[in-house]
Amino acid sequence: MNAMTLPQLLRHNAEQMAALPAMREKNHGIWETFTWAQYWQEVRDFALGLAAHGFRRGDKLAVIGDNRPRLYWAQLAAQCLGGTAVPTYQDSIAGELVFVLDHAEVSVVVAEDQEQVDKIRSLQTELPHLELVVYDDPKGLQHYLSAGLKSFADVQAAGREFGDAHPGYVEAEIDGGDPDDLALLTYTSGTTGRPKGVMLSHANLLSSAQGFVAAEDIRATDDLLCYLPMAWIGDSLFSLVLTLLVGFTCNCPERPQTVQRDLRELGPTIAIAPPRIWENMLTQLRLRAADSTPLKHRLFEFFRAHAERAEQLKGEGKPVSPLSRLGLALGEVLVYGPVRDQLGMRRARWVYTGGAPLGPDTFRFFRAFGINIKQVWGSTELAGLASLQPDGEADPDTVGRLIPGAEARIDANGEVLIRSAAIFKGYYKQPDATVATMTDDGWFRTGDSGFVDRRGHLVVVDRAKDVGKLADGTPFAPQFVENKLKFSPYIAEAVAFGDRRPFVAAIVAIDLTTIGNWAERRNLAYTSFQDLSAKPEVRRLIGEEIAEVNASLPNAARIRRFLLLNKEFDADDNEITRTRKIRRRFVAEKYAAIVEAFYRGDREVEVTTEITYEDGRKAILSSIIAIEDVFETAEPAREPAYA
Fold first, then answer.
1. pTM of this prediction?
2. pLDDT interval class at 634 (50, 70, 90)
3. Is residue 124, in this structure, part of any structural domain at all?
4. Are 117 and 256 members of one domain?
5. What percent of the chain lies above the pLDDT cut of 90?
6. Which residues touch 42 (CB under 8 Å, ≥6 apart)?
7. Where on the phi/psi map is residue 566: left (φ > 0), alpha (ψ -120 to 50), or beta?
8. Number of domains in the chain
9. Are residues 265 and 283 in the same domain?
10. How far is residue 327's CA from residue 305's CA, in Å, rounded to a whole number?
11. What strand order describes the sheet that includes 270-273?
12. Per-residue pLDDT at 601 exceeds 90
């Protein structure tokens, strides 16, 4: 297929696959299907409506809300007219949202519902470029009176009138589009400060998608559940670009709260999720197993251990004995198959994890249960994807082979550099930052430290700026330690410290659901997250979990001291990004008193921190928190891959 834009692909699909399903939406318990012909008509009508309201080439349209067909259509409609889509995080607080919408000079916002409309209207005086707010769900908005507020249906109706007066308008605008036109302005997660607007052209996005198609057996008959944040580049790549390139069906769940139910009902053939979701799935599975009858729990644990041993043998290239294969067949009937069905993975041919490293134990668990989970790697600046693991080469220690069209180089400092047609056009309004992230000969500096192994797989160790050394010179990669900790169902998040320090220490945020369940089974009363995390019994439990993790770490990398934080790490407090990546430098500065207390040998520390509520209100949380030492018994483990 010749170079095209996304709207040109949409029109092509409407002509070639008119009656095939393009998108489904779960509404009031019923899946409503939109064919490719209907998809095109919905986008065309809305594009005409935007034109009727003055939207022109170069303008910006933002969407905010959960995954809804109309929010995807709105992005494509803007691109039909030569405009740019700016997806935003639906849970963004006011300060984050104002920055993105104002920085991007957004003139139109398409919001899912009243909650999002109210959020935008409360910020309108700070958004001088905003001219029109469009809503999808009319519930609660019937009596809102504003010339700058329209329903999606009203904009489409105006578009049909505009189309009658200007026949062929949208088609001519699409024909005038160029693959190098700016298609998407998507903002980075901002792990080191303010998010940066990444400018991606149609050619950038399609290059990444074409590399994926060349490396993977993706089909027009595939089904994908669209539930990840629309502002994440991974969702844009799959739900906007790959679906147009291949023709598979995107499915929008009824609500975020029904995702697991809808996932099981749909049984998608494609699935992608960041590590936190896979970790949550594993936690819930282990909780259900623990709460089941003793017989079911023993069966689950027996066949889990059996499958993981077999998976380990496969990973090492060793044969699985006939007796072991018989055990796997029995386990498929009793455990593995039912678990895949509960997770909605009964039809999944392959599933992906990306956005951050997934712990090797979690990775092996799902593969052992017959789920073809594979790691992918990329960045927003690379239009989402640079490498993936082929079938038969899945490995928890690598991120796979580079996709066709991408090249890798490791510089003298160990940083991974990438060159491909998917590399972004630059950071919006930040030319200096763009120059700083590119080499003189056109390679993109990913910021990740890594190497290419003997099989040709890329191994990403950690963010280059986070890789350090302990005081004795031992290499220290905090993500490696943190991923080990997060395999525990009782630990939600962890931040490890050790660079230029005599030992490793960690701030741990407990998993409220799992620890709460554990406490209830032991009649341990508590009133809040802060109260539960302060319980001596909980500190002992986490200490035991850390000691178990330490048994798999080399002696120098073992965690010697830890503290249970009195709150969860929260994106509203800037401690993690909206994609749940730790803002490491911010956390180190915010909790500097804790870090210093670790290494002074203090037994407790006073922690005073500001917390932010969903409505933007702030409060101060203060408490004295105990610092625990970790009791060690196990022998040192072998050195890990990063050492």
1. 0.87
2. very low
3. yes
4. yes
5. 74
6. 34, 69, 70, 73, 156
7. alpha
8. 3
9. no
10. 11
11. 30-35, 21-27, 249-252, 223-225, 270-273, 350-353, 373-377, 387-388, 401-402
12. yes
Q: What is the DSSP letter of 576?
A: B
> Which parts of 175-310 are beta strand (E)?
182-187, 197-201, 223-225, 249-252, 270-273
Long-range contacts of 289-297 (CB under 8 A, 24+ apart): 291/517
Q: Is there a domain that residue 155 lies in?
A: yes
- Helix axis angle, 275-291 to 512-521, nearest 10°: 10
> CA torsion 85→25→374→497, rounded to 10°?
60
**Secondary structure letter of residue 573 according to DSSP:** G
Residue pLDDT, tens place only, 9-48: 999 999 999 999 999 999 989 999 999 999 999 999 999 9
Q: Helix H segments across 561-622?
A: 584-590, 592-600
For residue 517 the two structure tokens come to 């369940």
Residue 639: inside a domain, yes or no?
no
Q: Of 579, 191, 207, 188, nearest to 380 (Cα)? A: 188
d(CA 372, CA 29): 29
Tell me how far the alpha carbon of residue 27 is from its chain's centroid: 25
- DSSP code, position 47: H
Among 248, 269, 290, the domain boundary falls at 269
What pairing do the DSSP bridges indicate for beta strands 415-419 and 407-410? antiparallel
Tokens encoding 222: 């595939």
Q: Are residues 489 and 445 part of one domain? A: no
In the structure encoding, which two tokens stand for residue 543, read together? 């200490």
Edge-to-edge strands, sheet with 415-419: 407-410, 415-419, 444-452, 458-463
Phi first, then psi: give them for residue 618, nearest 5 degrees.
-120, 155
Quote the CA–CA distance of 39 and 74 in Å, as a whole number.
11
Q: 522: domain range?
A: 468-629
Handedness of CA 212, 213, 217, 223 (dihedral sign): positive
Match 């700026």 to its residue by tokens. Answer: 465
Residues of 278-291 as b/e, b for ≥16 C-beta within 10 angstroms?
bbbbbbbbbbebee
Asked if residue 64 belongs to a domain, the reply is yes
Q: Can you tell me the distance from the alpha carbon of 446 to that of 464, in angstroms, rounded to the nearest whole number?
A: 9
How many Å apart are CA 72 and CA 43, to the nearest integer?
Answer: 9
DSSP code per residue over 246-274: H-PEEEE-S-GGGHHHHHHHH--SEEEE-
Please state, for a pLDDT cut of 70, what percent of the chain lies above it.
96
**Contacts within 8 Å (CB) and 24+ apart, 279-283:** 279/358, 279/359, 279/362, 279/486, 279/487, 281/343, 282/362, 282/365, 282/366, 282/487, 282/489, 283/489, 283/511, 283/513, 283/514
In order, the DSSP letters of 400-453 are: -EEPTT-EEEE-TTSEEEEESTTS-SEETT-HHHHHHTB-TTS-EEEEEEEEE-
Q: How confident is the model at residue 253 (pLDDT cuts 50, 70, 90)?
A: very high
| Mean pLDDT across 71-89 | 98
Shared domain check, 203 and 76: yes
Q: Among candidates 152, 182, 202, 181, which has minimal Cα distance to 45?
A: 152
The better pLDDT of the pair 75, 617 is held by 75
Rounded Cα distance between 488 and 468, Å, is 25
